[in-house]
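About this split. The held-out portion is used to measure sequence recovery: a designer receives only the structure tokens and must propose an amino acid at every position. Recovery is the fraction of positions where the proposal matches the reference. Here is one held-out target exactly as it appears in the evaluation file.
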């Protein structure tokens, strides 16, 4: 079952992504617990500075005791990916990865990998934070990556209904890897013990120094001046 799930290249069922309540998100008001955010609030994004939250979905999920390991949340230990405290992620929640292995494969150093495929990297492992968890899913008018718990970079794909209501042609901003491609990438990260691939230094965030331009994409202005 676990091997079959690892081959999926698309999001899993409802309840497999989203932020657990209590997760801190970088916003124009500073670091805020995700459950306190509301539609219209501004959240700091990786590519487009401050962006408005267009939709929020909330759900309570009960984790059955017989849930396959591939469907368990994953625990990111404090400091593993520049996160300031232990962090739980749903198994299909995408994380932005930057490394040479992605550049060699895609021609762009950035790709999204589901959290469930990062098990074994810097202590990331499957587990159960509790029997019942509250999930909050943030959505924007386009794909975005947001800053979580200090420096981790987490993907928020634009939901289909927002794209349909806006009547726009959508092209995913980030390449999502799954199956063998994602496993190869994670193995490269494990071999290199690369602690910079999934986040940025938390100390960099208050002043947000300008990043080198991404291939083919303009650098967003510094929202904090």
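Reference sequence for scoring:
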């Amino acid at each position: 079952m676990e091997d079959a799930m690892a081959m999926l290249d698309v999001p899993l069922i409802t309840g497999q992504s989203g932020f657990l309540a209590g997760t801190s998100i970088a916003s124009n008001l500073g670091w805020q617990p995700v459950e306190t955010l509301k539609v219209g609030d501004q959240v700091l994004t990786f590519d487009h500075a401050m962006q408005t939250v267009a939709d929020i979905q909330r759900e309570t999920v009960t984790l059955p005791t017989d849930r396959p390991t591939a469907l368990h949340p994953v625990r990111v230990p404090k400091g593993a990916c520049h996160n300031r405290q232990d962090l739980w992620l749903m198994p299909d929640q995408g994380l932005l990865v930057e490394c040479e292995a992605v550049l060699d494969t895609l021609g762009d150093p950035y790709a999204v990998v589901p959290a469930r495929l990062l098990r074994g990297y810097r202590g990331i492992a499957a587990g159960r934070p509790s029997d019942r968890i509250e999930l909050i899913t943030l959505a924007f008018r386009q794909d975005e990556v947001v800053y979580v718990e200090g420096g981790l970079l987490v993907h928020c794909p634009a939901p289909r209904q927002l794209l349909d209501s806006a009547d726009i042609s959508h092209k995913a901003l980030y390449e999502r890897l799954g199956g063998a491609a994602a496993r190869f990438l994670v193995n490269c990260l494990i071999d290199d013990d690369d602690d910079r691939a999934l986040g940025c230094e938390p100390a960099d965030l208050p002043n947000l120094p300008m990043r080198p331009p991404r291939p083919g994409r303009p650098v967003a202005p510094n929202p904090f001046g």
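Annotator remark: The first helix runs from residue 2 to 6.
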